[in-house]
């Protein structure tokens, strides 16, 4: 055998051990070479009569994260080449055969006639978990880091190497569909309860347990290949099956609004596959997989949510010349809603935190938030009381700026008032060393303006968190006019340490994410004033792919905050900067009706105690007219929501606020949930094609006004047929 990615040895009992341990990589990944070596291993085990069976394990901390997605992307490029050369049919045939190579090698293992057992530790996800599922026996390590799962759906794919066929043959169909739709990582004991693995054991014993199973005569026939096999939920066409499939279809629609072809393919593959013997079922799955792999949704989601996000997390935008920095002690000034969250995530990442507010009481209140959050984790079994003690010991609450001494980074989250911020900046700079980086968490005030209050503007940067800090994965790093590379590098290193995803944007009002999301809110208000029924507005937002409707989102943000920002914008930029109808709507809601949003349980919605929120019946009286719902074009509403945000994103590129399309795309999905199936605000345009998008925007402009006007940079792209990613590649070259 010629193996580089596996070690292969056989013990005295004739049990082989294949240890997957790819040289030069921290994590095993399925590549074409790994597949070829798996073939060799299976052949060797089968060929040698002295070998009874084989255990597959990993030589690394984790089993494997799954298939190399760039390999799958490569198949798409090959398809295009072959299509040009030999025609579509030939290209499709080749693509189909190539995209099911993993399925075939796993099926070969499963039917080779000798027992295979997987001994799994650490992460075992996607294609790697499908490999384990094709083994006849699975032993899982019981340690904290071990997780199994099929997360493909999160990048617009589905488990296409047997996952959709083996999982529903191991558990009830409803549970299987949930698992495939959600793509969650599953802990060892849960995996055992679900029937996904046979044994859970201490890490040091997994290989021995797997060997013992083979030694004891473990069967080389998968349950579904046994003649009398019955799927746990019985036949599809049966009274029990009819209890499952109609609701499954309804749940799919409710959860996806039919925007995710991969989720639909899961339904089809499971439904059809369960009616067939395994080999044919796998063929059905492969057909769906080849189709989904070529979908624009998968291409967009793989690019943004896997490749770009990974690159940004690894510091793609970090200034290269600055040596790595390590933030051990961080100061947080302002222990309110945001500051308390920042203190928690920093302490949770192991940093010492000094949390300063105007009074000891306010600072302690902020620290108490960390206590509440970690107690919630303990109650969910995700942390221990000792973790809470250690975490709280790392946070020092204080009313004395002098305690900031020794901090490597200070982040302010005080009131959104330039005068208060200027005073805080001066006080902090008097307390900290001359080299310390200072960051502001302002959401609306330009960083370059705030930096004027600093004596070291090159060390002044924006670190803009989203609320709630502990949940939101995006952080915007704002580069002011004077911000230097060391400040950017430190901010990026800090964000990496707290395990969030950073994007670097140039200074502008609203930076990036809030500009786009504000356009979404405004569009909701505009529709409301046009007379579109409120429920229809909310549903159209969700149908378009947004996680919540615009009115609901407005309630979360707080209506009075919206009004305050509108007034501040008007004061600084003049009356034309704010839509008068929108302002009047907010004034009526906030000042006449006392409706501030979720925070006072009264906004566009009512929030009755112990019952789901519901749209406030008084809304209708605030609409100048009402449209007949049947006369409203829902497709146009959906377009308006996405187009208005994408146009704003395109403007940020034109203005140089966003310099890298990956950041707009990742930022829009993580920051405000922009329809993930599109790949983000700029990918939405790129995948539609600038020409088609511009035509759509112009038709909306003719009907709805100047907010749909196409910025020059985008109009030029439509002329030349270029894309944001193409333009960025040209700039980088
Ligand atoms: P908040 O009112 O909850 O908290 C502000 C805190 O700052 C209060 O505890 C207050 O006592 C303290 N403070 C005021 N002056 C101080 C001083 N001189 N020294 C020390 N502490 C002082 O406000 P928040 O919602 O946490 O917002 C804080 C900042 O974060 C603002 O700049 C805001 O724009 C920004 N921000 C807010 C959100 C959000 O959703 N709330 C999101 C992103 C950014």
Could you characterize what this model shows?
By secondary structure, the chain is α/β, with parallel strands linked by helices. The protein has three domains: 6-294, 2-enoyl-CoA Hydratase, Chain A, domain 1 (Alpha-Beta Complex); 329-507, NAD(P)-binding Rossmann-like Domain (Rossmann fold, 3-Layer(aba) Sandwich); 514-558 and 597-729, N-(1-d-carboxylethyl)-l-norvaline Dehydrogenase, domain 2, CATH 1.10.1040. The protein is built from 31 helices and 18 strands. Strand 1 (6-10) and strand 2 form a beta hairpin. The structure holds nicotinamide-adenine-dinucleotide (NAD). Nicotinamide-adenine-dinucleotide is lined by residues 333-339, 356-358, 362, 413-416, 420, 423-424, 441-443, 465, 467.
Strand arrangement in the largest pleated sheet? 11-10-9-12-13-14-15-16
Query: If you consult CATH, what is the topology of the largest domain?
Result: 2-enoyl-CoA Hydratase, Chain A, domain 1
Instruction: Show unreliable segments.
Output: none
Q: Label the CATH architecture of the largest domain.
A: Alpha-Beta Complex
What is the arithmetic mean of pLDDT? 96
Distance between the termini: 43 Å
Supply the helix-strand structural class: alpha/beta
Number of strands: 18
Query: How does the major sheet shape up?
Result: 8 strands, mixed
Small ligands present: nicotinamide-adenine-dinucleotide
Strand percent estimate: 5-15%
Rg computed from alpha carbons, rounded to a whole number of angstroms: 28 Å
CATH class of the largest domain: Alpha Beta
Count of discrete alpha- or pi-helical segments spanning 4 or more residues = 31
* Helical content (DSSP H or I, runs of 4+): 40-55%
> Could you give me the name of the CATH homologous superfamily of the largest domain?
2-enoyl-CoA Hydratase, Chain A, domain 1
Instruction: Assign an overall shape.
Output: globular
The domain tally reads: 3
